[in-house]
Amino acid sequence: MEESDKGTVLKKAYAEMESAVRVMVSENKTARFHHDLCGTKDEALRLFVRLKQMIDAQTIEAEITSSNKQPQIDLLEAQLQEAEDIITDLRSEMGQRQIGESEAGK
């Protein structure tokens, strides 16, 4: 082989090696990105599950608190109804007395 042919063959072989190195570097980067993506996805899923657990716990706590307060609410509503009935009765009595006084004054 001539010297120039050997140089061309060496240059071609070197270029192919450089291309192979670039491909390997790109494949390594792709693998790292994929690994990072999977890790990020797993972390997001863990956070989502934790958030759901917290919301569920708060919901249960609110339901328990509401359930515990219901008897007190019922009692207060009954007292309010009783007070409203007394007010209605007193107004009726006052109206009857005013009618009686106005008739007595005639």
Overview of this structure, please?
The chain is 96% helix and 0% strand. The chain is built from one helix and no strands. It has one helix at 3-104.
Topology of this structure?
Elements: H1 3-104
Strand count, sense and closure of the main sheet? none
Low-confidence stretches: none
Percent helix:
over 70%
Q: Which structural class matches the secondary elements? A: mainly alpha
Count of extended strands: 0
Shape: rod-shaped
How do you describe this structure in short?
This protein has one helix and no strands.
Name its key features.
single chain, 106 residues, mainly alpha, 1 helix
